[in-house]
Amino acid sequence: NVTAGTQGMLAAQAAAGLGTIVTSRRFVEAATLGEAVRELGASSRIVWLEDLRIGRLERLGGLARALLARAIHRRAAQARADDAAVVLFTSGSEGTPKGVVLSHRNILANQAQLASVVDFNPADTVFNALPMFHAFGLTGGFLLPVLSGVKTFLYPSPLHFRSVCELVYATNATILFGTNTFLAGYARVAHPYDFYAVRYVFAGAEAVREETRRLWMDKFGLRLLEGYGATETAPVIATNTAMMYRAGTVGLLLPGIEARIEPVEGLARGGRLFVKGPNVMLGYLRAQAPGILEPPPAGWFDTGDIVAIDGEGFVTILGRARRFAKIAGEMVSLGAVEAFVARAWPEWRHAVLAQPDARRGETLVLVTERPGAERGSLLEAAQREGMAELLVPRKIVTISKLPLLGSGKTDYAALLAAAGADGRAG
């Protein structure tokens, strides 16, 4: 994950005990990663693709050795279901990235779970521009469709809005994956006919804003199918589908996933979600304990999310457990405050942090891209919605552009660093 910065990459290197790194000089130069590669090279061997010259004799020799090894050690050479297949690192949006070890069973189980509720078929074409270092891009947008026999078109950057829209049209793509940030960008620049062949648009990784949902329906006649998942669950936990859909929720839990909700003090609705199933990771690798696998207790993964599940099984995300503030004795969801600000000022991006307050316990700080943002207009918007003044941030900081992770989510760790030691994302 080159967007994690040098420190994030060094943490990943230490956690996974990387001995060899394969890269390209052209890529390193284009992404200005020279300094990062020099630091990584202090502990790992760097292999440059430009230096590899593999001729016909080397290929034939490699094939012969591979066939011989397989014939002699067939059983040893075969991967087992619970062997590690990939290690993906969490986004680090709220701290140091953790290595998530996913097995072959985890990935194949999630493919089967998703295929049981979504009618992928060989006539489809998936268009995936999401980064491959992210669970949504690697397993959701690439491995799951490919293992289901669905043709998949890969594009290297979701930020090339116009190019993505043109290529979705040119490839006759029928299934598109994206996050709210990227889907909103595509909708703004696309011609109404660019997505003529698309029948499913799956959104995840961050909450879908109502403005984005409305824009896609009004301009393209497409309903965004919002889902929910985590790197630790390979990645899909729940999703809306064409047959089972409810706006504002992330759909139903996938088959085979057990869930339990533990109450959270101060919250009248919902609780902390724990899940268990064949798609739940083998465990974590941490930079503080390199190479030591830390499995989830008794197979239960703590999502860290506060959710509510209605009588029909639809899951609503209320916020991250760490992204709640206690203000004057009341628990306030920072995500809910962000959603309120987004409704009031839909043209810009916003983030809400919490800072200690001697009198009220904590206070809300709004970081926004809106020029000239001031609290008075937010108070008026809160009055129109019948919202308590408690939910209106007391402090507003304006910046030119919110920092984003490669997945399109807000980089709260960068915002925290900018806010100083007395601020927090939740």
Structural write-up:
With 426 residues, the protein is α/β, with parallel strands linked by helices. 31% of the residues lie in helices and 26% in strands. It is built from 13 helices and 22 strands. The strands form six sheets. It has a seven-stranded mixed β-sheet. The longest helix is centred in the first third of the chain and has 17 residues, at 56-72.
Features:
426 residues; alpha/beta; 7-stranded mixed beta sheet; 13 helices; 31% helix; globular; disordered C terminus
Quick synopsis:
Helices cover 31% and strands 26% of the residues. The chain is an alpha/beta fold and 426 residues long.
Report on the biggest sheet. 7 strands, mixed
- Rounded mean pLDDT is 85
Task: Note the quaternary state here.
Answer: single chain
- Spatial order of the strands forming the largest sheet: 6-5-7-8-9-10-11
Q: Segments where pLDDT lies below 50 for 5+ residues?
A: 420-426
Summing up helix and strand content along with how strands pair, one would put the structural category as: alpha/beta
Radius of gyration computed on alpha carbons? 23 Å
Task: Give me the secondary-structure topology.
Layout: H1 5-16, E1 20-23, H2 25-30, H3 34-40, E2 45-48, H4 56-72, H5 74-77, E3 84-89, E4 99-103, H6 104-115, E5 125-128, H7 135-147, E6 151-154, H8 161-170, E7 175-178, H9 180-189, E8 200-203, H10 210-220, E9 224-229, E10 236-239, E11 252-253, E12 258-262, E13 271-276, E14 283-286, E15 289-294, E16 301-309, E17 315-320, E18 324-327, E19 330-333, H11 334-344, E20 350-357, E21 361-368, H12 375-385, E22 395-398, H13 412-419
Parallel strand pairs: 1-2, 5-6, 5-7, 7-8, 8-9, 21-22
Antiparallel strand pairs: 3-4, 4-14, 9-10, 10-11, 12-13, 13-16, 14-15, 16-17, 18-19, 20-21
Helix pairs in contact: 1-3, 6-7, 8-9, 9-10
